Amino acid sequence: MSPLTLLTSVPALVAATPVVDIDATIFIQGGIFIALIFVLKPVLFTPWLEAQAKRVTSIDGAFEKAKTLRAEADALSSDYDTQLAAARDEALTMRSHMRREEEAAQAKTLAEARAKASEELDANRARIASEAEEARVALGGKVDELANTITEKVLGRAS
Questions:
Q1: Of 74, 54, 55, whose CA–CA distance to 66 is shortest?
Q2: Domain of 74?
Q3: pLDDT tens digit string along 56-93?
Q4: Are 148 and 158 in contact (CB under 8 A)?
Q5: Who has greater pLDDT, 158 or 119?
Q6: The whole model's pTM is what?
Q7: How many domains does the structure of the chain reveal?
Q8: Biggest alpha carbon–alpha carbon distance for the chain
Q9: Which of 38-52, 125-139, 140-154 reaches the highest mean pLDDT?
């Protein structure tokens, strides 16, 4: 046979062969299939299905736990932010109050220092005025003497 005749006869052979050959062995194959189902179900399929169910349950449980933890974390975060804002407000109020108290204390100290300085200044002015008056009185009597002394020294004669 030539190669060309073989190529032309292949489609004819394929068309003539049935796709599924049904004969008496189908009952034997069916029996083997059913026997395998009864044997493999408790040994293979049931444990595998249980493992899949446990996996799905654990994954779903983990997702639910994560959602719960996220909600708790958000609640704690908002509570923390609220407490932090309240603490900041309290600190600001306390700092403002302390600043006002310190400014009042400084104003009081400054007023006391000014009053004391004013008293000392008035006392010094009074003392200087009295000393100046004493000097005037003391020098008032010596003016004529001094004038005569200066005239004698300058003019060389007594006045």
A1: 74
A2: 55-128
A3: 999 988 889 999 999 999 999 999 999 999 999 999 99
A4: yes
A5: 119
A6: 0.42
A7: 1
A8: 182
A9: 38-52
